[in-house]
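Task: sequence design from structure.
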C-alpha cells in the first residue's frame, strides 16, 4: 500500500445545471497542500495565492476568488478519488469526506487482500474494488413505469480512479507559474461583450493567450529559462464594454426603446457590438470609454505593483479591433516626460533659420555620418531647405537616409507654412480687435481677454498630432507609467485616422511615452488596415510575413511560392529562346543587308536589353530577405510596423468565407503570441532558441 497523492481542484460553473472541475497546477496544488497541513497544526496563513497571483484561495471559505477582475467565487476541493460515467467526458472528484472514507477502506483491502469487496455508500449505491486498476461505482436508476422489483434494481456503473495520475486530468493540468514576471501586458477587447466565435469573455480569451505563452516559453525560450534570464509574461484583461452598456449610462435602455421588433437577434447583435463604434465617435460616450480604460489600466497596474513589490520589468499594452484604436488615442494624448518643464523648441513655434542648424537636423535623424558630404558642398540649413530629392541624391546619400531627410524637409516646410498662416491670421485678428476696442470702449476688457486668449492658443505648438476623435471635450486620462510597446491586433487605426482627415502622419510622428508599436493582422481580416503607408506614402514594401511558430512557412504557402518560381523559370526559358532567335536574326541581317546595319543593330540591342530586365513580380515572389530596421520614422524606432499572419490551408480556399473568423483568430493564435514574446524578450536581451 502506498498513500494516495492529493491534488487540489476548483469548480468552474458553466451554467445553472453544468459545472466543471479543473485542476490547479502542480506547484499551486503543492502550495495548497502545504498550507492545509500548516493550518491543521495551528500555523500558516489562511489565504494562498495561486495562478501566478491572479487568484486567492481562502481555506476558511474554501473558495477561489479573482484579484484583477470580477468573477464568481469558485469552490475548492482537495481531491484523491474520482469517478466518470460513459456519458461524461471528464472525471468528477468525490467529496473530501467520502474520499477519505474510501481511502481507509482501500487501505484495509490492500493490507488484507480483500479484493472484490463491496463498499456500501447508502441509498443503494456501492463501490466494488476488484483490483487497483478496476474499481466500479454502482448507482440504482429510478424505478421504471412498470415498477421494477426493489430486490433486483437496475444499476448503472461508473469508472472509479484513485489518484490524479490514473485520470485524464494529467493532460490538462496547467503550466506552473512561479515567481515575479518579467513583463506585464494589459489586453483590451474590441466591440461587443464577447471576443470569439465561442462567445467567450475577454477573461477566458486572455487565459488562452496566457496558456499559449507559457507553452511557447518552454518550447522556444528554453535556453533563456535555464539560464534564468527569461521568466513568464503576465497578461491581464481590460474591460470597458460593461461600463458603457451598464445602468449608469442608460444607453442600452434608450436604444431598446428605439429598436424595431423584427429580426430581433440581428438587432440585438448590432446594439451590443457594432454600435460601440458609433459610441466611440460620440464625444459623450467617448469620454466614458476613455476614462474607463485609462482608470482600469491605472487601477490594475497599481494593484499588480502592490502584490508584486519586486517587479522591475516594463509594461506593454495590446488591443484587439476597436480596443487597439482606443489605446492608440490614449497614448497619443499622454503628456511627454518633459511636459512639466517644456523646452522652448517644444512649447513655441520655431523658425528653422534661427534655431535649427544643419548639424542638429542630421543629429535628430541619426545621419551625422553624412555631415562631411554636406560640408564639402558648403551646405547649411538655408541651402538644405531649398534642396529637392534629386539635389540630395547628387550629394551621394543612399536611398534610406535620403528618404528620411526628404520626409524631414517636407515636414519642416509644412510647419513653416502653417506658422506663416497663423501669424497672418493673428495679425488680421489683432487689427480687427483693435478697431473694435477703439469703437466700443465699454467692451474693452472682455474683447482684450478674448484677444489675449487667441494669441496664446495660436502660438502654442506642442508638436502633438491630433489623432483623437477631434472633439475638444474629450480628455484622455494620463497613465501612471510609460508603456514599452503597443501591440494592435486586427486594428482599424489606419482607416480611422484617414477618416479623421489625416492623410499622412509623417516620419516625425511618435507616441509621446511609448517607443514601440506593432500592427498585427490576418490577411483576410476585413477590419484590419495597414499603418506604414500613413507614415510615408512612398513606402511600398509588403507587410512582414510572421513566421509560423514551428519555424517555417505553412506548406501551402511554400507550394504557392514554389509554383511562382517555377512559372518565373519557365518565363526566363522562353525569354532566353527569344533572345537566341533575335541573335540569329541579327546575324542573318548582317550577312544580307549592309545598308541600315547600324540602325538594326541598335534596335536589336535595345530589345535584348529590355528582355533582360528583371521582372518586378518575380522579385517580390522570390525575395525572402526581410529588413526590420528600414528607418521608417519614429513610431516604432525606425523598425517595421505592419506584420501579417499566415492563413491556414483551409482559409486559402475561400477568403470571404473565413473573413469574420479571421478577425477573431488572434486570441488563440500561436504566431501572434510568439511575435509579441520575441519583441518583448528582444528588448531584454533574450533571444529565442531559433535566433541563437
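Answer:
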Amino acid at each position: 500500500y502506498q498513500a494516495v497523492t492529493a491534488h487540489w481542484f476548483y469548480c468552474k460553473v458553466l451554467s445553472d445545471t453544468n459545472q466543471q472541475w479543473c485542476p490547479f497546477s502542480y506547484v499551486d496544488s503543492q502550495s495548497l497542500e502545504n498550507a492545509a497541513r500548516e493550518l491543521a497544526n495551528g500555523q500558516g496563513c489562511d489565504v494562498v495565492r495561486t495562478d501566478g497571483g491572479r487568484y486567492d484561495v481562502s481555506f476558511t471559505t474554501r473558495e477561489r476568488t479573482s484579484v484583477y477582475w470580477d468573477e464568481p467565487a469558485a469552490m475548492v476541493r482537495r481531491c484523491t478519488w474520482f469517478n466518470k460515467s460513459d456519458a461524461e467526458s471528464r472525471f468528477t472528484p468525490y467529496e473530501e469526506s467520502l474520499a477519505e472514507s474510501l481511502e481507509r477502506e482501500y487501505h484495509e483491502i490492500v493490507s488484507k487482500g480483500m479484493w472484490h469487496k463491496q463498499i456500501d455508500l447508502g441509498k443503494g449505491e456501492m463501490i466494488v474494488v476488484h483490483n487497483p486498476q478496476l474499481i466500479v461505482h454502482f448507482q440504482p436508476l429510478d424505478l421504471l413505469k412498470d415498477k421494477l422489483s426493489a430486490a433486483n434494481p437496475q444499476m448503472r456503473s461508473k469508472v472509479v480512479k484513485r489518484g490524479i495520475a490514473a485520470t485524464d486530468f494529467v493532460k490538462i493540468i496547467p503550466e506552473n507559474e512561479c515567481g515575479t514576471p518579467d513583463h506585464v501586458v494589459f489586453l483590451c477587447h474590441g466591440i461587443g461583450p464577447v471576443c470569439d466565435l465561442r462567445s467567450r469573455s475577454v477573461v477566458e480569451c486572455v487565459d488562452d493567450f496566457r496558456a499559449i505563452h507559457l507553452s511557447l516559453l518552454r518550447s522556444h525560450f528554453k535556453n533563456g529559462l535555464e539560464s534564468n534570464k527569461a521568466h513568464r509574461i503576465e497578461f491581464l484583461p481590460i474591460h470597458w464594454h460593461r461600463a458603457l452598456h451598464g445602468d449608469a449610462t442608460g444607453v442600452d435602455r434608450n436604444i431598446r426603446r428605439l429598436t424595431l421588433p423584427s429580426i430581433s437577434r440581428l438587432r440585438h447583435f448590432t446594439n451590443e457590438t457594432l454600435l460601440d463604434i458609433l459610441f466611440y465617435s460620440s464625444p459623450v460616450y467617448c469620454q466614458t470609454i476613455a476614462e474607463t480604460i485609462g482608470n482600469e489600466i491605472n487601477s490594475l497596474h497599481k494593484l499588480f505593483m502592490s502584490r508584486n513589490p519586486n517587479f522591475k520589468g516594463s509594461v506593454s499594452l495590446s488591443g484587439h479591433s476597436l480596443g487597439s484604436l482606443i489605446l492608440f488615442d490614449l497614448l497619443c494624448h499622454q503628456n511627454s516626460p518633459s511636459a512639466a518643464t517644456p523646452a522652448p523648441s517644444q512649447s513655441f513655434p520655431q523658425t528653422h533659420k534661427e534655431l535649427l542648424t544643419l548639424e542638429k537636423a542630421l543629429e535628430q535623424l541619426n545621419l551625422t555620418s553624412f555631415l562631411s558630404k554636406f560640408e564639402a558642398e558648403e551646405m547649411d540649413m538655408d541651402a538644405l531647405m531649398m534642396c529637392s530629392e534629386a539635389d540630395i541624391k547628387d550629394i551621394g546619400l543612399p536611398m534610406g537616409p535620403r528618404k528620411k531627410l526628404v520626409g524631414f524637409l517636407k515636414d519642416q516646410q509644412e510647419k513653416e507654412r502653417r506658422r506663416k498662416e497663423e501669424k497672418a491670421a493673428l495679425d488680421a485678428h489683432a487689427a480687427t480687435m483693435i478697431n473694435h476696442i477703439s469703437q466700443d470702449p465699454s467692451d474693452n476688457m472682455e474683447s482684450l481677454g478674448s484677444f489675449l486668449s487667441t494669441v496664446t492658443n495660436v502660438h502654442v505648438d506642442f508638436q502633438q498630432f491630433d489623432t483623437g476623435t477631434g472633439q475638444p471635450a474629450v480628455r484622455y486620462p494620463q497613465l501612471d507609467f510609460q508603456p514599452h510597446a503597443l501591440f494592435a491586433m486586427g486594428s482599424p487605426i489606419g482607416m480611422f485616422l484617414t477618416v479623421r482627415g489625416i492623410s499622412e502622419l509623417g516620419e516625425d510622428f511618435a507616441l509621446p511615452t511609448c517607443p514601440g508599436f506593432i500592427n498585427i493582422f490576418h490577411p483576410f481580416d476585413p477590419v484590419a488596415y495597414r499603418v506604414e503607408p500613413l507614415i510615408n506614402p512612398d513606402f511600398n514594401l509588403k507587410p512582414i510575413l510572421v513566421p509560423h511558430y514551428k519555424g517555417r512557412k505553412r506548406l501551402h504557402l511554400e507550394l504557392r511560392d514554389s509554383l511562382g518560381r517555377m512559372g518565373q523559370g519557365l518565363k526566363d526559358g522562353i525569354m532566353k529562346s527569344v533572345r537566341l532567335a533575335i541573335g540569329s536574326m541579327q546575324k542573318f541581317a548582317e550577312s544580307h543587308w549592309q545598308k541600315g546595319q547600324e540602325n538594326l543593330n541598335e534596335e536589336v540591342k535595345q530589345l535584348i536589353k529590355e528582355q533582360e530586365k528583371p521582372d518586378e513580380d518575380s522579385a517580390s515572389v522570390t525575395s525572402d530577405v526581410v529588413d526590420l530596421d528600414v528607418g521608417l520614422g519614429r513610431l516604432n524606432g525606425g523598425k517595421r510596423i505592419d506584420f501579417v499572419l499566415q492563413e491556414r490551408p483551409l482559409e486559402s480556399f475561400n477568403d470571404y468565407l473565413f473573413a469574420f473568423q479571421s478577425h477573431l483568430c488572434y486570441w488563440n493564435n500561436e504566431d501572434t503570441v510568439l511575435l509579441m514574446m520575441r519583441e518583448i524578450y528582444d528588448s531584454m536581451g533574450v533571444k529565442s532558441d531559433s535566433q541563437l
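Confidence is low (pLDDT under 50) at residues 143-149, 339-354, 448-472, 614-625.
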